[in-house]
Design goal:
Elements: H1 2-16, H2 20-26, H3 31-39, H4 46-56, H5 60-63, H6 83-103, H7 122-139, H8 150-158, E1 161-165, E2 173-177, E3 182-187, H9 192-208, E4 214-217, H10 223-226, H11 229-242, H12 245-254, H13 259-268, H14 273-282, H15 288-295, H16 299-306, H17 309-319, H18 326-337, H19 344-350, H20 354-361
Parallel strand pairs: 1-3
Antiparallel strand pairs: 2-3, 2-4
């Protein structure tokens, strides 16, 4: 509504204690055009609104009178900030950025998969969903079970943003899906196989469209949490996605199981030995005695047996690092490059000072010691 937008911009001008002309100048807008837009003679462009929102410290949605509903769980009173609240706040921030970018014509890439009929047991629903996701990946020449780092793969194959954060008190993850974007927030981890499973688990929630807009997974090991139908489905999805039964049956057909061969498969598939042992046992590919023996193997033991210690330490280091969403950075930069928005949204997303980022983009270089 133009009337609502003008009213809200006028509110920002009043709160800024500037005149209308001064406010326009601060936003980098022509005073005459700004005046015409405020009087209804001219419409505000998307760039106008982006610059006004930046100066006013609000969102484009707010200027348009589109008040996004906050998830009910985010409003719960707490005595102090928690990791869950941090994760929710970050999800809302990134979702708002996508909403603003969508208004400017830069939408999150949409990926279409074959439809999945969700009926029967939740375990079976998760498996069928994973089978469809794996077929989609294979059409794009990708084999997710071989990928150490799932985050870029999830973004490329499924159009879902993956943000990895460091939380003071630890946090597994959450997923967010609305009409403009799909996002997952995942915690850094000292146990990379656990983080990898969390990413696959959140992917299952998003592909199944569970609990829109927000689905929380503070602790995937919590017994009560795991009983929920959506958790049963997401766990079944993650298990089949990371350890496809066809792949495991082929390996079992071509090799005898020993401590070394088992360790090599665990390292090849980037999973914990205990999860691999249970999966093989449930598929009747190893005996109960073998399952008990293999479950006692630690990830570091598997890496040593398989001669993969270097890659194991690299994996641990990578899982402990925060990560920003690449598609969101790409879209934000493109919006700036095309003049649809200012540099500030990109700087905020990267956690950089605007002037520093501008210098870097302008090609500023340190003087070479060889030039003196």
């Amino acid at each position: 509504m133009p009337g609502e937008t003008t009213k809200r911009i006028q509110q920002l001008i009043t709160e800024s204690t500037h005149t209308q002309t001064e406010f326009a100048a601060q936003a980098g807008l022509d005073a005459s055009k700004f005046s015409k837009s405020m009087s209804g003679v001219r419409r505000f462009t998307s760039l106008d609104l982006a610059r006004i929102a930046e100066v006013g410290g609000v969102t484009v949605d707010w200027l348009l009178g589109i008040d996004r509903p906050a998830p009910a769980l985010a409003a719960r009173a707490r005595d102090a900030a928690t990791s869950e609240q941090e994760a929710i706040a970050e999800a809302e921030r990134l979702a708002q950025l996508w909403s603003d970018l969508a208004f400017l014509g830069h939408k999150q890439p949409q990926v279409a998969m074959d439809p999945v009929v969700q009926r029967g047991r939740f375990v079976d629903q998760g498996r069928r969903l994973a089978e469809v996701a794996l077929r989609h990946a294979q059409k794009l020449d990708s084999e997710p079970w071989k990928a150490r780092d799932l985050a870029p793969l999830v973004e490329d194959l499924f159009g879902i943003d993956v943000r990895i954060m460091r939380f003071a008190f630890g946090y597994e993850g959450l997923s967010w899906g609305d009409d403009t974007c799909k996002i997952m927030i995942v915690g850094t981890s000292e146990v990379p196989a656990r983080q990898r499973f969390t990413i696959a688990h959140e992917l299952g929630h998003l592909l199944a469209e569970d609990d829109q807009e927000l689905h929380l997974d503070p602790n995937l090991s919590d017994a009560e949490h795991r009983k929920a139908p959506s958790e049963i489905r997401a766990n079944a999805f993650a298990t089949e996605f990371l350890l496809p039964q066809d792949v495991l049956r082929e390996k079992a057909r071509t090799m005898p199981w020993s401590d070394q061969s088992f360790a090599e498969v665990a390292c090849d598939l980037w999973v914990s030995p205990v999860n691999l042992a249970w999966r093989l046992f449930n598929l009747k590919l190893i005996s109960n005695e073998q399952c008990t023996r293999f479950r006692g193997m630690r990830a570091i033991d598997a890496a040593m047996l398989a001669g993969r210690m270097d890659t194991h330490w690299q994996w641990i280091a990578a899982a402990g690092q925060p990560r920003i969403s690449v598609p969101l950075v790409r879209a934000t930069f493109l919006a700036y490059q095309r003049g649809d928005t200012t540099l500030r949204p990109l700087a905020n997303l990267l956690g950089l000072d605007t002037d520093f980022l501008r210098q870097a983009m302008d090609g500023a270089r340190e003087e070479s010691p060889l030039s003196s």
